[in-house]
Amino acid sequence: MIQNFLMDFLAVAGANLFLKRCRKMRWLLLGAAVSAVLGLCCILLCRNYLLYCLLTHFLINTLMTVICFGRCDRRQFFENWVAVYLVVLLLGGAFEWLQESGILSKSRGVAIAAAVTVTCGLLRYLGRRRAFGSHVRRAWLGKDARRMALSAYWDSGNQLRDPYTGQPICILSYSLAEKFVDQTKDRIRFVPYRALGAEDGLLAVMDVDEMILQDGRQMRRYEHMAVGIAQKGLLEDKEYDLILHASLG
Predict the structure, then answer these.
(1) Could you give the percent of the chain with pLDDT greater than 70?
(2) Distance (Å, rounded) from C-alpha 88 to C-alpha 81?
(3) Closest listed residue to residue 164, CA positions, set 190, 198, 197, 143
(4) Which value, in Å, is the radius of gyration of the alpha carbons in the chain?
(5) Which helix (H) or strand (E) is 224 found in, with range?
(6) Which of 15-24, 94-103, 136-145, 207-216 shows the lowest mean pLDDT across its residues?
(7) Which CATH number fits domain 135-248: 1.10.287, 2.60.40, 2.40.50, 2.40.70?
(8) Residue 233 DSSP SS3
(9) Phi and psi of 30, rounded to 5°?
(10) 54: helix, coil or strand?
(11) Is the C-alpha dihedral spanning 231, 233, 234, 238 positive or negative?
């Protein structure tokens, strides 16, 4: 029972951290305790294995999720339930693998601690990927008859503005700028900038007629936007092509 309580608590705590729900510790402990007690009752009273699996995976886990995360809309509830269930599977899978592989078969406590460490590391990685993904958006640039679709990343640290016009400046990768910019038609100006750990320099900037950002199901359109051209190699190995200004978040 103590092991089940610890595993359930780690599952809801991991989901709480991953989803950034900021639920208080007492609710997580209460939900894990109720789940552990009901799980023990199922083991003692339920003789049918299929019924036991249905009760633990759907009824008890659902009740634990409701207790831990409280009342919410259907979408949030589904996210909470899936996150808790996935963390339970990760913990259980890591624990079983460590024991069956013989790596930590001698000590059950050490195996549990190792499983928790592996799961926490994976959750941390997934959390970073989730945070990164929430800042990446589809974008389109338009200039005269030219159109370009690309991937844009919202960066709260990009506070660069044109000191002459006050326009916020987004940064486009050098490789895409080569394809998009028409050297014979587009007016390029140079804007002074300062980057952390680098000397002051000049950034090549052009104006585009429009920029469209897709934020979920919403499409936002901006006119007469300033786009700077990044140094060669700066964004070529990134998962995005354009760094958005902080004001566009």
Answers:
(1) 79
(2) 11
(3) 190
(4) 26
(5) strand 218-229
(6) 94-103
(7) 2.40.70
(8) coil
(9) -65, -45
(10) helix
(11) positive
- For 94-135, where are the E strands, in sequence order? none
pTM: 0.52
Q: Supply the DSSP symbol for 168.
A: B
What number of helices (H) and strands (E) belong to the chain?
A: 7, 7
Extended beta strands in 65-217, E state: 136-143, 146-154, 169-172, 189-193, 201-215
Strands (E), 37-120: none
* 137-166 confidence digits (pLDDT tens): 889 999 999 999 998 988 888 889 998 889
Q: Are 151 and 240 in contact (CB under 8 A)?
A: yes
Residue 247, beta-bridge partner list: none
Two structure tokens written together for 51: 């019924």
User: Reduced to 3 states, what is the DSSP secondary structure of residue 87?
Assistant: helix
